[in-house]
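User: Some background: our group keeps a shared notebook of sequences we're curious about, and every so often someone picks one and asks for a predicted structure to add to the entry. Today it's my turn. The entry only has the sequence so far, pasted here. Could you supply the structure so I can complete it?
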Amino acid sequence: MENIFAHLKRAVLIFVLTLSIISADELATKLEIWVYNYKNSSITITDSTFNTTWDNNKNLTSIFQNGSITVEANYHEGPRYKYGFDYVFTSHPHLGDSTVYDTLGYGLYKISTIWDTFERYFYLDIRDGNLPASPVDIKLKFGDGSDQWEYKHGASCNDTAFWHTITNGNIYTIWDIWDDCVEAGWTSDSPDMSPFQPIDPTNLSISIAGVYPKHPLLTWERSEPVESAKYNVWRKEEQSQWHEIASNLTTNSYLDEEVDIFGMGPQSTFYYKVRAVSGDGTKESNGYSNTESIMGVGPAERINISSQVIPNDFSLTTFPNPFNPTIKIAYTIPKEGKVSLLVYDIVGRGVSTLVSEYQLEGNYIMNWDAEDFPSGIYYIRLENAGSGITRKVLLVR
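Assistant: Of course. Here's the predicted structure to add to the notebook entry:
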């Protein structure tokens, strides 16, 4: 993981930050960073995990913590400075000694410091434990005669020791950093992300798609690692059990063609949730996405179901009028969307909700049975896509 360093006008400070990517029982690799500091005052470097980390078995973990270290001015006790950030301190006999090393997980790390009152930071992706053998993995440099910080890989290959400027806020990957060193036998291929356990999917939402019939369209945010995560979709009806309806999806959307929104009936409700699975199929996310539901549409009968005939008018007709006790209500909506058909009494109180649902464009007809209502004047109001129409009707006993 990369660090932020101090710089001094012409005193090279080299300290070595040795970090290890570990599991409970095995050392996967180490990440050793040399920092060249050209600053004649101390500087505090802060390291924080960014959202997600994995252990050596590629399982999600929360044991890795944030930390910081203050680098003193003119510090040059290297090259074996081993403490670095305040992670989990563990002894690794695999290295042939009992030195206490700081440990970190696979993941994305933010390295930051305050430099001349401004925050300087970058992100380092270290989801790769297969670095070439080398005493140093990354070299970082603060200042050195200009207001910038730089990085290069730690190999001794003959590349004229190129330094690369670090851009504030950028993401750098350990495998791309090593791409400079062809002589070290390193290639820039991204590591295999398929064994990494994915995080839970988020922000599941449902819209309606298709011409006719209409189906639920599910969308959600991709799970880390986005390069390899796949998804399983689950569905249930009210009073029934969850069952999986789609598996190993590589996209973050799904059209459920088994469900016809306009054929479900107004009393039907379907519930959905999504779970992520690793690219190699060996690990599931710890949990599911949020659960979302969609209801069938309702009591109004759609007269015109031809997708070729789209009405232009927004209209509402009632007959007979006066009526006793049933009145037919015919209406036309030119644009699909949420439709409300409500009945109000003479003083404006809502007394009946006839329709409150998503409907296709078209012509509809339904009955209102006012058997349980007293004689008098009522108002029937239709609303759709920001427009409304009201009709006065008279119930006569």
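Suggested note for the entry: Residues 1-29, 77-102 have pLDDT under 50 and may be disordered. Residues 174-177 form the longest helix (4 residues).
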